[in-house]
């Protein structure tokens, strides 16, 4: 891994104490996800994000299982809370960027791109209505459309762990060639397979990889994201 390349882990936390511990261990190499779908109202989600931020926790506002119906809630919560990172559907990424920039905020915002099963071709129809239309476009088209409106990052979901490395490689390469420096592989990633997934992204020109590791890090009995697994991730070298 070159001096310009970085790996940051996007994870969940059971509660504030778990989030604080993760942030203390990982510093600027972790983002703690707050999924708006988990809250009955925007106000509740806003309170959670603000609580995390007030305690030094870097927050990533997310949809919740990439639920496209949550896109407006993500945008509204993000405008009110100024998180470090925002997850968004492809069709609403530019809208969200515009609202935040008008507010004087410039977090990392991604756009969700879906693997199609064919390396080099993807679905950008990741919105609540467009998701019904499975029409493929090239990785180059997807990357250039994000780049031309100022989106910095591709969230590639669901990659099913290491099953789609050829598709990850193609999308990462197209993103890098379009000037998108950040790539976020998501879906089925664990401590066991994250190394080869991240390496695939770095080898194809990405500067910052943000793998999303959610349930694979969580203790099934307590619901707590395990600090020992977080430390395992931080010790990895590429």
Notable traits:
238 residues, TIM Barrel, 11-stranded mixed sheet
Describe what you observe in this structure:
- By secondary structure, the protein is an alpha/beta fold.
- It has a single domain (6-235), classed as Alpha-Beta Barrel (TIM Barrel).
- Helix content is 37%, strand content 17%.
- It is built from eight helices and eleven strands.
- The protein has helices at residues 16-26, 42-54, 71-81, 93-102, 139-148, 165-177, 194-203, 227-235, and strands at 6-7, 9-11, 30-35, 59-62, 85-86, 108-115, 121-123, 137-138, 153-156, 182-185, 208-209.
- Strands 1, 2, 3, 4, 5, 6, 7, 8, 9, 10 and 11 form an eleven-stranded mixed beta sheet that branches.
- Helix 2 packs across helix 3, helix 3 packs parallel to helix 4 and helix 6 (165-177) packs parallel to helix 7.
- The protein is globular and about 45 Å long.
- The termini are close together.
- The model has no long low-confidence stretch (mean pLDDT 97).
